[in-house]
């Protein structure tokens, strides 16, 4: 049937993953008890805490799957999956390092020069070096082929970058942006040609980071403006002109993880403390059944990554189904409790509802809109 | 080709000779298909040879049930292979010959009085009405979950010649009632946990059927969208239609992953109740989206009796609320996940499958 390219083999059960899961659980319980963090929804983008990130690095829970020579721990994607899932379920402040650990590191491992890897990867694994995704632009959201930020070589072989990136989460607290730039003029016959990725040190002169606040007043979004920024020639990532291909591979990491269905898990946990009547228990059951199915899909992708596959189409599907679920959770809970949503609510459930609702518009946008993702799934169905 | 693929291939070969048809009170099942399956030994798969079956694993039985569900086969194979036969065997009762259809009844008010006081399987007198009996009037034997003063009892009733009321689900599959007044039958006492597992196995059987049927509905709809031309091009070329098909695919893929995992939990002999509950609830929820969009894409032809689509969508609309409604299983799942207290919800979720 037509959906074969969407289907992955069931993930093998991993005793090692369950072992590390137990360790993370113990660590998180101790941190919560010590008051080192408080639980919030959507913390993988909004919960920046460098001290917490460094603690995870010390425990060996960052760069988990990377080679030891780069500070990694040579563990499986299944083990990494267990760690990320536990952190998200606890609503822990993991945003500082999240992008670096999830996709920039793997991106550097795949395409980086030896010097780039040796310099940067150990710092990411230590929880000390943070990254930004420099893809979207003011006039290019999901349509990345239309980006206009331009990099040209100067006489010294360095790159001079001009343009602007937008929706860059945590650019104000990060060290590098892997930036998609146009390195040769747009070719209407091949929209995906002429793009390259540059490894941009965000402290360079000519870079301005302007905050963009989201609906709860929080600041993780930014606009990053490049005005004649000179990037050393050896900071090209991968191959000149291969940016589109590299970005596509990166997106499989970006789209498939448990953060695509657990952003609002802390709301579910708070709801569980309240659920008692039959309608509430049924709502909790419906929510849980959907969550359990998403876990199975996401685990299958972790298994595929361990087999060395790059499951881009299943990753798009997980993100579509997962982020729809994240937002639906709010509605399921609202319908069966009498608690108004407010950030100032005396009730923890009211605060969780408010946080989840005010962040909700982002769930189905970031990492590619669900319409884009469904286009990819449709390709998997053989329709395009 | 694996053993499972081979079994599926065999079922599909047989199915080609038996197109789905509209079920009526006069023609409530596909007796010819049943005979062909029985002759091929497929109605005894998963039952050990020493118990009169054909051998094979649970995975083989699941694959057969899935292939038959996708073919809208009007035969009580899911009830027999996945629920009634394993339960009868586990209770130590004598299993009827696999070629005589066996079904299951877990609903209704049937009480069992012991006629002897021996340990293990014994003789019981059944009184009351078994309701929502799948394949009532079709099945030759019925495994009935009854209550007794000493606990739940699984009784095996020979229903040949007994009166059943004819009712039908949305697809016309017989779901009647059977009145039992002082019927003597073999039966065995179960623990409450065993009775709960039996109900869960029944729910999981429906989830297996739903998953297979939903996959087939998606495949038919993708195929139709590729063939049917409107405004000078195939429907599948329209972005709006692609969005709907992708949404269906998301639901179908999620259901398949969870149902597979729940079956594996049963294979590992772990307590299947919450896994089955989750699979049943998730599969039922997917029916809303998949059946609605499948009919939408098929247009008016898709809701005529002459088109094949309704053979599966009507079954899906019924199966999601059979063997325990979607809402009832959602409550079981919600309450079960909170068994160790609300703060243990996350650990519970990571244990279910």
**Total DSSP helices of chain B:** 10
CATH superfamily grouping of the largest domain in chain B: Butyryl-CoA Dehydrogenase, subunit A, domain 2
- How much of the sequence lies in strands of chain A comes to 5-15%
The strand order across the widest sheet of chain B is 1-4-5-6-3-2
Q: What is the CATH third-level topology name of the largest domain in chain A? A: Butyryl-CoA Dehydrogenase, subunit A, domain 3
* Main beta-sheet strand count, sense and barrel state of chain A: 4 strands, mixed
Mean pLDDT of chain B: 96
Name the CATH architecture of the largest domain in chain A. Answer: Up-down Bundle
Q: Largest beta sheet of chain B, briefly?
A: 6 strands, mixed
Give the overall form of chain B.
Answer: globular
Cα radius of gyration of chain B in angstroms: 21 Å
Distance between the amino and carboxyl termini of chain A = 16 Å
Oligomer: heterodimer
Number of strands of chain A: 8
CATH third-level topology of the largest domain in chain B: Butyryl-CoA Dehydrogenase, subunit A, domain 2
Proportion of residues in helical segments of chain B: 40-55%
Question: Which ranges of chain A are low-confidence, i.e. pLDDT below 50, for 5 or more consecutive residues?
Answer: none
InterPro entries (chain B): AcylCo_DH-like_C (IPR036250), AcylCo_DH/oxidase_C (IPR009075), AcylCoA_DH/ox_N (IPR013786), AcylCoA_DH/ox_N_sf (IPR037069), AcylCoA_DH/oxidase_NM_dom_sf (IPR009100)
Domain Acyl-CoA dehydrogenase/oxidase N-terminal (chain B): 24-91
GO molecular function (chain B): flavin adenine dinucleotide binding; medium-chain fatty acyl-CoA dehydrogenase activity
Cofactor (chain B): FAD
